[in-house]
Amino acid sequence: MGHASEPSHESLEQAAEWYALLRSEEADAGDRERWQAWMAAAVEHRRAWGYVESVSRHFATLQTTPDPRGTAEELWKANDRVMQRRRALGSLVAVVGIGLAGWLTWRSTPLPYLTRTRNADYRTATGEIREIALPDGSRVWLNTATAIHEAYDARYRTLSLIEGEILIDTASDPSRPFVVETPQGRLRALGTRFTVRRRGESSELSVHAGAVEIATQSGAWNVVPAGRRTRFTHDGIAPLAPTDSAREAWSRGVLIVEDMRLGELVEELRRYRSGHLGLSPTVADLKVFGSFPIDDTDATLDMLASALPIRIQRRLPWWVSIEPQADSD
């Protein structure tokens, strides 16, 4: 069978509701029979149930650290414990096969991130923002789930962005260019303040002061001035577009959005949270304006609920979803 597709929002919410009921003291034999019938009714139901169980196990490990965000090292150890305890989900869930296992790992554990970043010089965990003073006096801010490698020598000051997003304020040193490397290309700072973010097979650059020179792996080249942003891949550089200071507001602990789809904002909020944050497709296109704290995403969700026709459904400590506002009739 091919790759398992992601369960629908509806199936995930049903699975979470069943999970909450079966883990409570209120479930009886009839409830368990109805749950088994629901599980048997569709492969998607079993896939959704497996995802809920996986998120539960992962979240439980995070609660063992004094700070739920922890450090990357703590998350590595926590993930090891999860993998050691992980067992087959049972005969009903097992039929989903390897596709489900891969999807669960990708969606609900930090293993891929930690595998790539274990040897990084600096890193942050989910929800953590960190400021680093570099040896030359430059400063770099690491956004959530970010990792960098530092390589300073007599000729260059180089940072490699392994994962995530950084904001850099460079110190002057004409004899040693400041360089940021990503898998897609090389950025040379021209006396500047700028952000770089990795997004899958591309990287994004926003220049807030000065200018930055881009050279991609394939040889494409451009200089991006202050107030402009672009995306680049191994093969080329996208046309420049306007940027603004809101794109570095995360370094101050806030997200500033203007006319953004709720779906896009939720994608951003997921970067700063552990556990599941679901969104009903029926409200994904609502437009959002405002400033929102990223060090307290629950407060952000409550702010959204007070401004939009939505409600926040908290079924479990680690399972939150955004739903349409209930009818008042």
TrEMBL record:
Tagged with keyword Transmembrane helix: yes
Stretches assigned to the FecR protein domain: 121-213
Residues annotated as domain FecR N-terminal: 13-54
Classification via InterPro entries: FecR (IPR006860), FecR_N (IPR032623), Ferrdict_sens_TM (IPR012373)
MF (Gene Ontology): sigma factor antagonist activity
Transmembrane annotation, as ranges: 88-106
Swiss-Prot/TrEMBL keywords: Membrane, Transmembrane, Transmembrane helix
The protein, known as: FecR family protein
Source organism of the structure: Billgrantia gudaonensis
